[in-house]
Amino acid sequence: MAQGDCKNKREETMIRNSVRVLAACAGLLMAAAAPAMADDYPSRPIEVIVGFPPGSAVDVNIRTILPALQKILKVPIVVDNRPGAGGAIAFNALEKSKPDGYTLGSVNYPAISGIYATGGMAFDPLEKYTFLGNMIYEPNVISVAKASPYKDLKEMVAYLKDHPSGLSYGATGVASLDGLTALAVGQTAGAKFRVVNFEGSPDAVSALLGGHIDAMGMAVSEIVPYMQDGSMRPMGVGGDERNPLLPDVPTFKEQGFPLAVNGSSRGFIMPAGADPAIVAKLRDAIKTAAADPDYLAAAKKLSQAVHYIPGDEVAATVKQQIDFIKTVFPK
Asked: In Å, what is the CA distance from 87 to each residue of 83, 119, 163, 176?
């Protein structure tokens, strides 16, 4: 074989080997960039970002179902509390997380709907999140301390009409459930509270019991222990019918105020773009956990109203809420 032919052969071999190496490297890079696969999922602890402080209703709801989820998924699940801005801080942090199934988020709506619809979120949650499922529905309550002179929402509204913004109201953000409830009172009754925002409901409770605010919005499960010790009194409760935990408390609707926002649903979300098999595994796990007898017993003890809704239905409800809030509450 001529010397030139040998040289050409060596060059061809080197080129072929280089192509093989480049192809192998490209394959490794593509594998590294691809979303986590479901075959071995989950293989390490899962984190849940909660947008409210420890002890708040959303935090307690999430922590109550975690033992059942851990039993199903067979890995530890830890809570990362990132309170503030009615949940917006946590929602923004979750949006930046990897869609690998190891970072989930708590979702409470209409809070997420209100945050986006009123301009507090720079991205559409329906595009950036995958909704995994809801396990709690809880009406809202407007409550006062025991020393308050008011007996129901009608009396408070009558006072507010004569004294505009004369009553302070504790909330956890203008677009949170309690904040939206206050705005809904203004829209329906034409009487506006002076809203004071707190980082979380425990801070608002301290302010209410300390006499620093006149009223606050809170979940049914939150007020029950304060009603039992006599330190708080509800002015009304959301929902179309009286709540079984508060059978003697009239609904807002009964009092002539059919508020557009009067209850909260809570569940789980994750960043969009995950392997569909991981999404399916998480959705199945949440559905199964929501029916777990130990979870149901724990939820009942804590006055939590378990109400499972599939992820796709949750997303549809959030869309309806966003459309509604955009028409009622300006950015």
From this structure: 6, 14, 31, 8
